Amino acid sequence: MENSVQKELKVSALENGTVIDHIPSTRLFTAIKILKLEKVSNPVYFGTNMNSQKYGSKGIIKISDRFFGREEINKIALVAPTATLIEIKDYKVVSKYTVETPSEVQSFVKCFNPKCITNHQAVPTKFKVFTDDKGFLKLRCHYCEKTTTQENMVFQ
Amino acid sequence: MKNRSLISINDFSKKEYLKILDIAEEFEENPRQKILENHVIATLFFEPSTRTRLSFESAISQLGGKIIGFTDASSSSVSKGETLMDTIKTVANYSDLIVMRHPLDGSARWASEVAGIPIINAGDGANQHPTQCLLDMYSIRKTQGTLENIHIAFVGDLKYGRTVHSLVIALTQFNATFHLVSPEELKLPSVIKKYIKDSGLKYHQYTELESIMDKVDILYMTRIQRERFADPMEYERVKNSYILKNKMLENSKSNMRVLHPLPRVNEIEEAVDQNTKAYYFQQARNGVYVRQALLASILGLK
Asked: I want to staple B199 with a disulfide (CB 3.0 to 4.6 A). Which of A128, B74, B86, B172 is the partner?
């Protein structure tokens, strides 16, 4: 009983829209910022520090009447590579997939290097995404060639 | 290479570097050819760098090219608040190629994307200075007869030394063995060491200069700057241990040569200048030939 109630709260409440599930709890607000959800007028629901069988703890976002392009949604892979996306139409799940880490990101992350040209003039940022030896995601600036690590990522 | 920009040492392949070095050799034999007579080259120095600028201007002048430009930002429209993009787009109308030096990292890459004409990066902040790297490679090949399989020691500030980083990366393509001599706080950054490891090559780290003297073909000296040390006592402690003296060269290999990107402060005693193993002033001269080779290749004249 408890399980089905919880499930309903998480997923089925949307008539049309997108559910983003399995966001690491600590990254929920960053994900909201990256997707610029604080600026939309659609109803947005979110929860965090929820129990997850797979990850222990997770965050979830539900947005009514809003669907995302792959490129747009893949931006959150930088902070939430485990996130899954569920698209709902007419109360039914019409598609479900995991975000993919893009190989290049443009214009929405700030370069961590204070001396980078992108932090001084109107130059859109551009990075190559790579994984280091320990499996951590990192960004290499196309301009200054310096590396921005995940914990130093600031989103514009 | 025709019409391409040179921004980072990673932009060109091994084959392309070697081609440039071959052309530089031709210029060393005959540096005064009037092949740039119909060309205008802009040298835009947004921060002063007398040595690099004079080397480029000598290279251009000896080839008969015309030079326009400025020697520091205060004498240009930058001081009125013009953006880099606007300066570059404007100067691109007046010249065939732009040589630029700028205090911000990544500025040269950005310039190359908006200029519409080739850019040669003469230093962008702490990031890249590829012509220095090419002249270092030229000097190594010239003195050792090859770039392959050399043992090279880098001495001094390996943490902040941009020339050191670029040369290490370039030499990973030539099966070099690296001997890294520095104080603890100025060791080569791990991101650069990763290039060595990823190429399957070896590096050894030392804190004593004398420990490598009989092992290497090239001794690449750099300046240690006081301002790099958080603790001034630490600077006082190490500053004298990285000064090269004639006596230290006694046990070095006969083919060994001493390089230094210059300017030198006190890290090589002046008496060493007379030693046949001192090569740093010829190294600076080689910079002119390498820059001539680059200009000629990019403008499609060689």
From this structure: B172
Superfamily of domain B31-128: Aspartate/ornithine carbamoyltransferase (3.40.50.1370)
Is B131-284 in CATH node 3.40.50.1370?
Answer: yes
Minimal-distance CA residue of chain A relative to B81 = A121
Structural domain spans, chain B: 31-128, 131-284
Contact A116 B106 (CB under 8 A): yes
Classify strands A44-52 and A154-155 as parallel, antiparallel or unpaired.
unpaired
Confirm whether B31-128 and B131-284 share one CATH topology: yes
Question: Which chain B residues have a beta carbon less than 8 Å from that of A122?
Answer: 83, 85
pTM: 0.90
This model of the complex carries an ipTM of 0.91
Please report the domains of chain A, with CATH numbers, ordered by start residue.
2-98 (3.30.70.140), 104-155 (2.30.30.20)
Q: Could B105 and A113 be called an inter-chain contact, meaning their C-beta atoms sit closer than 8 Å?
A: yes
- 3-state class (DSSP) for residue B49: coil
* C-alpha distance from residue B16 to each of A82, B12, B131, B294 (Å): 42, 6, 13, 11
B295: closest CA of chain A, how far (Å): 23
Instruction: Give B95 to chain A, closest Cα distance, Å.
Output: 24
Tens of pLDDT, residue by residue over B192-246, are 999 999 999 999 999 999 889 999 999 999 998 887 888 888 888 888 889 999 9
- Inter-chain contact B83–A122, Cβ cutoff 8 Å? yes
Distance, CA of B263 to CA of A99 (rounded, Å): 52
- Report CB contact under 8 Å: B83, A113: no
Alpha carbon distance B130, B11 (integer Å): 9
